Amino acid sequence: MAECFPHANGLVYFELFWHLRDPKFTVHRVDGIYRGEGPWKVGESVIRVLGCHGTDGPLARQFDEWRAYLAEHGDAYPERTVIEAIARERGATVSPDT
Fold first, then answer.
1. If DSSP codes are grouped into helix, strand and coil, which group holds residue 68?
2. Containing H/E element for 58?
3. CB 1 within 8 A of CB 12
4. DSSP structure class, residue 21
5. Residue 9 and residue 31 in contact, taking contact as beta carbons nearer than 8 Å
6. Cα 28 to Cα 80: distance, rounded to the nearest angstrom
């Protein structure tokens, strides 16, 4: 996840490189009760922090590519206000702390 926000029915998340495509297809809502202390579950989805036991190697490489992209092209990444507006459009709760 490039970005993640709470939603009354679960969470809203943004795929890596979401801003290079139409957010209609790269920003998603996962419905379900948020539970756990890591790994977490939202509905039937499991959320793990990369680097934890059992990390998915290909996913870790994708995240490394994402971080390298941001380091080189961070100025092309949308401003926080834009990200938050998209999250709100999907019904996410956006607080000053997110």
1. helix
2. helix 57-73
3. no
4. S
5. yes
6. 18
pLDDT digits 0-9 by tens, 45-88? 888 777 655 567 788 888 889 999 999 998 999 999 999 999 99
Q: By three-state DSSP, how is residue 64 classified?
A: helix
DSSP state of 84: H
User: Would the CA dihedral through 60, 66, 70, 73 be positive or negative?
Assistant: positive
Give the Cα separation of 85 and 75 in Å (integer).
19
Question: Whats the size of the chain, residue-wise?
Answer: 98
Cα-to-chain-centroid distance, residue 12: 7
Q: Distance between CA atoms of 40 and 63, rounded to whole angstroms?
A: 19
Q: Which of 52, 49, 6, 50 is nearest to 30 (CA)?
A: 6
Hey, where are the domains in the chain?
3-89
User: How far is 6 from 9, CA to CA, in rounded Å?
Assistant: 8
Residue 79 in tokens: 């401003």
Look up residue 92 and give its two tokens.
């996410």
